[in-house]
Specification:
mainly beta; 29 strands
Length: 351
């Protein structure tokens, strides 16, 4: 996942213009920004995750002042933090109440007390993270080999690694023993047996897009939603069983994490340019862009609260980048520092 600090300078310029729009939405549709909570805090940010059963929202912060910050999923009020746990992502097993952060080594903590339990040595560069309820395992994704490391959530021990064909971005589980991983540098999807930790298929989507990011699944109907950033932002919808492409649609710039809501039959993507795209699955072979909602620039990751059907995202305001600032990865220009106290959580839902 690309760090938030390298989003294009153009995104930063759009920040001030988008703040007012964020409260009212964009194109016509049922979703609105219901609440914005300015929670402040220091450090960069990447993934956001929800413990739906425990009603907690986890937002890791990176950098020298970073820590794992925790909020009430309903009120967005702060409930605690774990100091010096600086990472890009976090995941929680609701059964064992064990949490995991993508530090190196991985930090395992108690979700009830927010106390660190231990650290777990892994190779690679921990970035993305997913909890698979199928067998209570945590998948740690990396842009360096091994691209996926799997941890037993109850014991906090490494079960094994997965030999993927390229860098791992977002992963999703169908809840029945199969994990799908978006391969960023190859433009495709790896299908993995969650028990054997072996790749059973690779779906090549490089003709449609590269620099893969988000991945979502309609487990009931065996439909995958794979998101790509280049050459143009696009979501490719495919049959999960054989990789056949069913449809594709453009999305906003900088789609990162995504989700599928089985209650509403919608695939949802958060996009760094300040939008959120809702794709309606009318049937397992019929799809349509339902709404493109204006959120706020930099809000590129999301998590879904399946109890309330609310979508949570986060971002901040930034100062303009100096004229001579060096370009970031992919030619993206740098931007100025975060405006102190501006970090905010956005709650999206139907009014």
């Amino acid at each position: 996942m690309r760090p938030i600090s390298v989003v294009a300078a153009a995104v930063a310029v759009m920040m001030s213009a988008s703040i007012g729009m964020a409260q009212h939405g964009g194109a016509a549709g049922p979703y609105k920004v219901l609440k914005t909570a300015k929670v402040g805090g220091e450090g960069g940010f990447d993934y956001i995750s929800a413990d739906v059963e425990g009603r907690r929202l986890y937002m890791p912060r990176s950098g020298a002042m970073g820590q794992l910050t925790v909020f009430n999923l309903d009120t967005l009020e702060p409930v605690g933090s774990i100091a010096e746990v600086r990472s890009g992502g976090a995941a929680v097993d609701p059964k064992s109440h064990h949490g995991f952060s993508t530090t190196k080594p991985i930090t395992m903590w108690d979700a009830s007390t927010l106390k660190v339990i231990k650290t777990i040595d892994v190779d690679g560069r921990p970035d993305g993270i997913m909890f698979d309820p199928y067998n209570e395992r945590v998948w740690v994704l990396s842009h360096m080999p091994p691209y996926a490391t799997v941890i037993d959530a109850k014991e906090g021990t490494v079960v094994g690694t997965v030999d993927l064909v390229g860098t791992a971005e977002q992963a999703v589980s169908d809840g029945r023993g199969t994990v799908y991983i978006n391969i960023s540098d190859k433009g495709g999807v790896a299908v993995v047996n969650a028990n054997k930790l072996t790749v059973t298929a690779n779906y090549d989507l490089s003709a449609r897009g590269v620099h893969g990011s988000g991945m979502a699944v309609d487990a009931k109907n065996h439909v995958l939603f794979a998101y790509y950033r280049d050459p143009k932002p696009v979501v490719v919808i495919l049959n999960a069983d054989n990789g056949n492409i069913l449809a594709s649609f453009p999305t906003g710039e900088g789609a990162d994490t995504v989700a599928f809501n089985p209650a509403t039959m919608e695939a949802i993507s958060a996009e760094a340019a300040g939008s959120m795209t809702f794709i309606k699955e009318n049937s397992p072979t019929s799809f349509a862009v339902e709404q493109t909602l204006q959120t706020k620039a930099g809000a590129k990751t999301l998590t879904l609260d399946t109890k309330t059907n609310h979508v949570l995202t986060m971002t901040a305001d930034y100062e303009a980048a100096p004229a001579n600032a060096p370009a970031g990865p992919g030619g993206r220009a740098a931007r100025g520092p975060m405006v102190s106290g501006s970090f905010s959580i956005l709650m999206i839902g139907k009014q």
